[in-house]
UniProtKB/TrEMBL annotation:
Catalytic activity: alpha,alpha-trehalose 6-phosphate + H2O = alpha,alpha-trehalose + phosphate
InterPro entries noted in UniProt: HAD-like_sf (IPR036412), HAD-SF_hydro_IIB (IPR006379), HAD_sf (IPR023214), OTSB-like (IPR044651), Trehalose_PPase (IPR003337)
Protein's name in the database: Trehalose 6-phosphate phosphatase
Entries under Pfam families matching the protein: Trehalose_PPase
Domain of life: Bacteria
Co-factor(s): Mg(2+)
Keyword tRNA processing: no
Pathway in which the depicted protein is active: Glycan biosynthesis; trehalose biosynthesis
Job of this protein: Removes the phosphate from trehalose 6-phosphate to produce free trehalose.
Keyword annotations from UniProtKB, A to Z: Hydrolase, Magnesium, Metal-binding
GO biological process: trehalose biosynthetic process
Recorded family membership: Belongs to the trehalose phosphatase family.
MF GO annotations: metal ion binding; trehalose-phosphatase activity
Annotated source species: Methylobacterium nodulans (strain LMG 21967 / CNCM I-2342 / ORS 2060)
Length: 250
């Protein structure tokens, strides 16, 4: 399998970087952005970050490099200089729901509301079990009230409400409609429940799926932790064969 036969798609939190207690506390190793840029060159440009984070947040973490990004699970898309953004004013019921959610969770210690404009995430990683349950109940109630235009996505100590049409699988397929991704075999690395649907899409399309960490998965391959992903990127960027099929089976 040649480098130019592959299109590499990478989740961010829990895949490229270790999960942090708060979303703004993740640490990006200094060598990672340049290694990703070098690897992108080997792949003829076919490398993208596919994440629940906004594009602007990814740019901040990976500066000074700038990558193609499917942000907010594909609500935002950037391919080269082409950007399809998200307009919060197009989601008035969600915006009202975010305000309600902030009021409901304000008494809960260590519960964080991450307002992304066109989606909202509630984090309870640092909360007590009681407050975590209350936070999850609140986001589940709001998702039910918003109806079919939105969906609730549960992950590791987080619940996120986003437009129903936004999934990482859809984002990957959208990238593959155009050069340099078109006609290549998709390779997707992810770590969470939110990534399992993308694994299903990649598997169905004949690609390669790689789960980071433990737990049940439909991914074909597995690495133990984000450090293993970073080591792999450094090796690939340094000239080692880009062969995801050689990774350990899940």
């Amino acid at each position: 399998m040649t480098d130019t036969a592959l299109a590499l798609f990478l989740d961010f939190d829990g895949t490229l970087v270790d999960i942090a207690p708060r979303p703004d506390q993740v640490v990006v190793p200094a060598e990672l952005p340049a290694a990703l840029a070098t690897l992108r060159g080997r792949l003829g440009g076919a490398l993208a970050i596919v994440t629940g984070r906004p594009i602007a947040t990814i740019d901040g973490f990976l500066a000074p490099e700038r990558f193609d990004v499917g942000g907010l699970h594909g609500v935002e898309m950037r391919r080269g200089d082409r950007v399809a953004g998200c307009e919060p004013s197009a989601h008035p019921t969600l915006r009202a729901g975010v305000a309600r959610l902030q009021d409901q969770t304000a008494p809960l210690e260590a519960v964080l509301i991450e307002d992304k404009g066109c989606s909202v995430a509630v984090h309870w990683r640092l909360a007590t079990p009681t407050d975590a349950r209350k936070a999850q109940d609140a986001v589940e109630r709001l998702a039910a009230d918003l109806g079919s235009a939105y969906r609730l996505q549960l992950g590791k100590a987080v619940g996120e409400i986003l437009p129903a049409t936004a999934t990482k699988g859809h984002a990957i397929r959208a990238f593959q409609e155009d050069a340099p991704y078109a006609g290549r075999r998709a390779v997707f690395f992810g770590d969470d429940l939110t990534d399992e649907k993308a694994f299903a899409t990649v598997n169905a399309d004949g690609g390669v799926s790689v789960r980071i960490g433990g737990g049940e998965t439909i991914a074909q391959h597995r690495l133990a932790q984000p450090e293993d992903v970073r080591d792999l990127i450094l090796r690939w960027a340094g000239g080692a064969p880009v062969d995801p099929e050689a990774l350990p089976r899940a």
